[in-house]
Design brief:
Elements: E1 2-6, H1 13-22, E2 26-31, E3 46-50, H2 56-65, E4 70-73, H3 79-84, H4 86-106, E5 111-117, E6 128-129, H5 140-159, E7 163-168, E8 170-172, H6 184-193, E9 198-200, E10 210-212, H7 213-225, E11 235-237, H8 247-257, E12 263-265, H9 269-277, E13 282-283, H10 286-292, H11 301-314
Parallel strand pairs: 1-2, 1-4, 2-3, 4-5, 5-7, 6-13, 7-11, 8-10, 9-12
Helix pairs in contact: 2-4, 4-5, 6-8
The chain binds nicotinamide-adenine-dinucleotide.
Amino acid sequence: MNVLITGGTGFIGALLARAHVERGDNVIIFDIAPNMSRIQDVAGAVTVIQGNLSYAAEVNNVVCDNRIERILHLGSMLSAPSDANPWASFQVNVIGTMNVLEAARLFDAGTVVFPSTIATFGLDTDRVADDATVQHPTTMYGCGKAYCENLGRFYRNKFGVDFRGIRFPSVIGPGAKVRHVSQYNAWMIEFPLRGKPFECFVTENTKMPTMYFKDAANAVDAIASAPIESIKTVNYNVAGITPTTSAKEIETVVRRHVPGAHITYIPDPVIMKYYETFRVETFDDSRAREEWGWCPAYPDIDTVLLDFKAELREHPDWYT
Ligand SMILES: NC(=O)c1ccc[n+]([C@@H]2O[C@H](COP(=O)([O-])OP(=O)(O)OC[C@H]3O[C@@H](n4cnc5c(N)ncnc54)[C@H](O)[C@@H]3O)[C@@H](O)[C@H]2O)c1
């Protein structure tokens, strides 16, 4: 199968590129700034095209030229860069997704998987968010993603594009560099594993639903492969670590594995302000479980930490 992975050298996209190469697919990566270190083991087996999602002609060209049969649309600006530059975020996340949907329509490119985010929830949510919870995002990133979930549904209904959306919670794994509201949960694990002190920038009792990056890739793969008749809700929450752990609970598990871990707390008032309006603790993914059998392989911090440690040991140069 000819698979296009936009953002395919990114944190999650690289895992999908590797998985598709391993199963013999023809993988085309479209990325504005390809990070070849993340896919160095399969670099010779993929086609990497440097391009910008914001340009419709570039997106049309890659889909048409390569006779694409499935699109995993991972390319995106993340939360902190989107809020720092909302104008660029609109071009990449909103126009870029419109361009992908148009290309899928024009060139009959098969299933389109779109990763959305828990950040599409915001104001007026309670402790539990499910697929019927009102989406009132407070960030540029969340606004753009919420729009594109609905844009995808529109393309599905009007043009028959096989659009499927999944909302990730905060995704953790090794090598992430950008500090944002929920990055503490990955660094709480990564810094001690690397023998570095970690100054946590949220309070001990802060909770954010979280998923391991391999489960995020697994979820993209699972929804892409699900029979078309199983997709009813169209945009789905997918949960990972359940129940959601507080910063202190993560620290406790880390200390079991890294006894001398140096972890302190200096909450950042700007980040804590975000948690005053964002209260979701339980990310209810029952529809994904019921409709297409979603089940995380890394459902607790212990399992995540062991694999995190193995990744850093076995592939240090992927995560520099
Ligand atoms: N990481 C998370 O916590 C998280 C949470 C929820 C949703 N998501 C979503 O999952 C997807 C993958 O995220 P990730 O963590 O792998 O991010 P990432 O930043 O590691 O990867 C995104 C990739 O997109 C590329 N890209 C950015 N702008 C582009 C453009 N204009 N044209 C082409 N490529 C462009 C980047 O170069 C990068 O390789 C994104 O859609 C993101 O919004 C991620």
